[in-house]
Design a protein that fits this description.
With 374 residues, the chain is mainly alpha-helical. It contains 14 helices and 4 strands.
């Protein structure tokens, strides 16, 4: 059995570095891909509902209805359209020009001064259930705020059976971008690691350079390390770019330690690189390797990692499948480090899971790789 030789590994590292510098696609995957995905998702995807078009039907204008309409005009959540005709508002809702209707009936001003109060009719487009719930909650908030201000101006106290005090932890601005951008880093890292190693190694099998490498005295371990280390450095470069854009361009707070973030990312990148080596070992074809890498890494990471969809809301069998997705653990670490800090009760279990997956894929790849050409 041949012993490990540092000189041979140095030669392999130099060869891989030169190949990376001569290959624009590797540089593009490592640096252009994160840039495009972050700009696309950071600016194009939002789970917030702001400036929602809303039809405000005032059938009998009065000072009270004007005050109520002013509360909607000042709200950052709505873009109200004042109408006096309910059928016109209903047509606007059916045509998709507005997302909801608030109707103040002709007796609104009179009933408002009665002990039983006035009724408000609210109609919300429920096609998008998530947005409908947000709009309903925002409407209740505007109504409660306006009623409280009205009571204070009249020198009265708004009596309620329960006083609710809001306190939002970890994301006090309630910006979906603070949640999406850290999770997007996991998608970028899994794509960089898996695509780089899967496609580049498969390309060497196609071109015949891997056969020439197998004929040299290098060991299988040296070959794998020679492939792994340069792309590891390239992937960490992509991580630095992604974190810099998240913090300085998208203004996502980084509450935790940078060293915890980069150490966790390094372990996750090893998982992605080992998965790419495993895929290339099985396929040995660029096109097939790229397709398998996308299906096996990007799609599960997008759907089953908690990046956008809450894992706790998924059916129990699907929740069990998510434990096989490496991005699930890294997304939990990213959200914790960026928004909550160094919460070791979350970081350590997920980091341990990533370490086990990295060792598993590396061990399987090492066992499947032989210096034979069958």
């Amino acid at each position: 059995m041949k012993r490990f030789r540092w000189q041979r590994l140095q030669a392999l590292l130099r060869k891989e570095t030169i190949q990376i510098l001569r290959d624009p696609s590797s540089i593009g995957i490592a640096f252009v891909l994160p840039l495009v995905l972050l700009l696309l998702f950071g600016y194009g995807v939002s789970l917030d509902a702001r400036k929602v078009p809303l039809a405000l039907v005032v059938e009998n204008p009065s000072p009270d209805t004007a005050s109520f309409a002013g509360a909607f005009a000042e709200s950052p959540w709505f873009a109200p359209y004042l109408l006096t005709d309910y059928p016109a508002a209903e047509a606007a809702l059916l045509n998709g020009r507005v997302r909801g209707i608030v109707r103040l009936r002709p007796d609104f001003g009179r009933d408002l001064h009665r002990p039983e109060g006035a009724d408000i009719q609210v109609i919300v487009n429920g096609v998008d259930a998530n947005t409908a719930r947000l709009v309903e909650g925002y409407l209740q908030g505007v109504w409660q705020t306006w009623l409280g201000q009205r009571m204070r101006l009249q020198g009265r106290e708004l009596k309620a059976p329960v006083m609710l005090e809001h306190r939002i932890w970890f994301n006090p601005e309630v910006r979906s971008r603070n949640f999406l951008v850290p999770g997007l880093i996991a998608l970028i890292m899994i794509l960089i690691g898996a695509l780089l190693t899967a496609m580049v190694v498969a390309r060497e099998w196609e071109r015949g350079t891997m056969e020439a490498l197998m004929a040299t005295p290098v060991t299988v371990g040296e070959i794998l390390l020679g492939k792994l280390l340069p792309f590891f450095l390239l992937g960490m470069g992509g991580l630095v770019l992604s974190v810099a854009m998240a913090v300085w361009l998208f203004r996502v707070p980084l509450i935790g330690s940078a060293w915890v973030l980069f150490a966790s990312s390094a372990v996750f990148l090893l998982v992605a690189l080992a998965m790419g080596l495993f895929i290339s070992t099985l396929t040995r074809n660029q096109f097939t390797a790229a397709q398998v890498a996308l299906i096996a890494t990007f799609l599960p990471s997008f759907i089953l990692s908690g990046f956008i969809f809450d894992i706790g809301s998924m059916p129990a069998p699907i929740q069990l499948i998510t434990y096989l997705v490496a991005s699930r653990y890294f997304v939990a670490i990213l959200h914790t480090v960026f928004l909550a800090g160094d919460v070791w009760g979350v970081i350590l279990p997920n980091l341990l899971a990533l370490g086990l997956m990295a060792g598993l894929f590396a061990g399987i790849t090492r066992r499947l790789t032989r210096k034979r050409l069958e």
